# Entry
Amino acid sequence: MMNRFMNRAQAGTMLAAKLKSYANRQDVIVLALPRGGVPVAFEVALTLNAPLDVFIVRKLGVPGHEELAMGAIAMGGSIVYNEQIVRDLHLSENTIKHVIQFEQDELTRREKSYRGNRPFPDLYNKTVILVDDGIATGATIKAAIKALRQLKPASVVVAVPVASHDIVTIMEQLADKVICVLQPENFYAVGQVYDDFAQTTDHEVHELLNRVPKG
# Structure
């Protein structure tokens, strides 16, 4: 039984195989969390014959320990916090505001870069398949789901190649459905199940988005 992926493209192909019930449906749209989620979502969108777009979320990293998420911010301004991290590290309101502003600026830059003048698709009553290359802490996915709910989709399906069993259980309480290919034991980082986990570039994101229909 397969327990790792060669790269994000193969992971997307494997994930798409579990989503075939959504193929060729007019109400389905695939949304990728850039940048790493885009190569995965591209394969899903191709297989399902569904439009592909991006939904931008930024992790709010702890200053000096940016890999540690104290929360996340999504398009539309939705924010979720890891209250325990904020409390345990005694993070001040000013520190949090500074990080939020920095990440909001980057979110805005990426949205303009990836979408240009093209408006965000109407998600009302749509089935949204939200795709990333994996879930570690869940902060970014939580923020994305919270923001997407405000746009009144019919349902939100979280689809990822890898996550821990505990995270999948949490996501099942937030999303309408969760599809996950691998749930390894002793899971600590998304990259551990990929042979090639090189950072996806803005150029690659543009290239993939231009190869499939938009919502």
